[in-house]
Every structure is written in structure tokens, then in C-alpha cells.
């Protein structure tokens, strides 16, 4: 097995509805993201998935979040744009675009700051 990952980031604004504190006010973060896929086998070039392909897929999903007010996006109309829900959004988006042949999405890491974040492994 091979676990292959890429790291990226995005900037965005949000506020947490019904949060009992400062996070209920509009504010922004520079979120850091790591996406990991698992390959059972290598292709003819000796790769589980080309980093270029994985970066392109992740960028397509991240571009929907980058420099946006997350509360205005349709996906977050019923869900607070918490880091947990952001990780779920990224996981679902990447899963939908990932080629079905040899790789499976294992986890998405989202960090709000350099010292706090979470891993999401899917449902």
C-alpha cells in the first residue's frame, strides 16, 4: 500500500451561526489542507497517482472555497462552515473527481491555525 498526499491552503471568511462566542462574528482564516489517497498498486511508471493529477483535482475543489465568504456558498447553507464541515466538503469533492481505478481517498486534514486542526476520514 502507498499513501500519497499533497498539501495546499486557502483563505476564506466565515462565521459560525449560533456559536456562543467571538466565532459568531465574521472573521477569516488561512486554512491549511492535506489530502491523502491510498494506492494498492503502482502504474507502469511506478506511481500510485501522479502528483500533478492529485494537485489538479484538489485545486478544483479548493478553488470553490478560496477567497470566499463560506457562509454564502450553497453547501454551507444548512451546515456551519466549521473546519469539520470544510473537511467533509473537500473530502466529498475530491472523492467525486478521483479516478476510480487504483486510488481511494483516505483522509483530509484541515488546520485552522498552525497548532489546531482535524482529520476527516469520510462516512
UniProtKB/TrEMBL annotation:
- Kindly state which keywords UniProt assigns to this record, in alphabetical order: Lyase, Metal-binding, Queuosine biosynthesis, Zinc
Question: What domain of life is recorded for the organism?
Answer: Bacteria
Manner of cofactor binding, per the entry note: Binds 1 zinc ion per subunit.
| Cofactor(s) annotated in UniProt | Zn(2+)
- Pathway(s) served: Purine metabolism; 7-cyano-7-deazaguanine biosynthesis
Of which family is this protein a member? Belongs to the PTPS family. QueD subfamily.
The name this protein goes by in its record: 6-carboxy-5,6,7,8-tetrahydropterin synthase
Q: Which gene encodes it?
A: queD
